[in-house]
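Q: Give me a protein?
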Amino acid sequence: MKPNGTSRISLRDIAKRLGVSHVTVSLALRDNPRISQSMREKVKAVAEEMSYRPDPMLAALANYRKDKRQLPVTSSIAWINAWPEPDQLRNHREFDLYWEGVQEAALKHGYRLEEFRQQGAITLRRLDQILSSRGIKGILIPPHTFHPEWSDFPWKNYCVVKFGRSITDPAAHIVTANEVSNTLLAYHKIKQLGYKRIGYIADEERAFEALSLFEAGYLFAQREDSDSNLLPILNIQAHRVYESLPKIHAWMREYRPDAIITDVAAIPLILPQYYPPSELGIAATSIMDCDADAGIDQNAREIGRVAFRVLNTLMHERSKGIPEIPHELLVSGKWVNGSSLPDKRP
């Protein structure tokens, strides 16, 4: 307890004990490289001994002030792209918005977002050498269409965050869309617009996700549907939609849906050639990379911003390597009305 009887220990109390300025104490507790390693350790030891705890109100004020200004760029974080044709990654609007969200948040904290392409002559060893020589400690892994062979990469040297569940190795922390919640939202919004028989056409391969939780959300929504118009999910190969048309038509005849939710980008483009919007409404699980203007906006830019915030926390805490308990942070989307799903209410 402080001599004056109050319980909170301040930076000035620690500084007085050590015979240094309170600014030195503040910088040391934040691991600022301007303070020597030995001094940082000494300050932390005394702070622990004196039971110092930051004032949450002052911390909040400091963070507010920091967010109001953009720090000078002093370092970089890495965006690892191992796609066989790397330019295709950000051709996906969803993934390009991830990049934009990260870039926006990173610049405010003094980081530059840089893409590193891991193809051909760029071996894992060489990639590690490049990142290490540049002093890069944070890595973001965007979605991939396959599982890169990264088992020999020294993840223990880096803080790592992944977008989505498309790859399982490394088993890092994940930031992604809340697919279950988003599909539940879509189902309920479609019901509110007067549709009764809502079907789901899914990409059976789901190249970008190890598990389609969109489908799980649809099944949950059906279970809660008091109308009990339960339609089985139709799985097709997204890259062979025209070849799947006989299968789609047979499913349509048998189950007579009046609305469809889909994660297959081409479905809203092709089906209206056979079933006009007045007969069949269509909504997409993500309107960014689909030809439907009704459906879910997954808030991809916000997913990017959140991913940076998670990575920044890991770097600040020096939490490198693969975590013992990986975390998943889910970002909710929002519903968007559109012409592909006309309002059928009287």
In short: The chain has a mean pLDDT of 87. The chain has three domains: 1-53, 75-178+302-334, 179-296. The two ends are 71 Å apart (CA to CA).
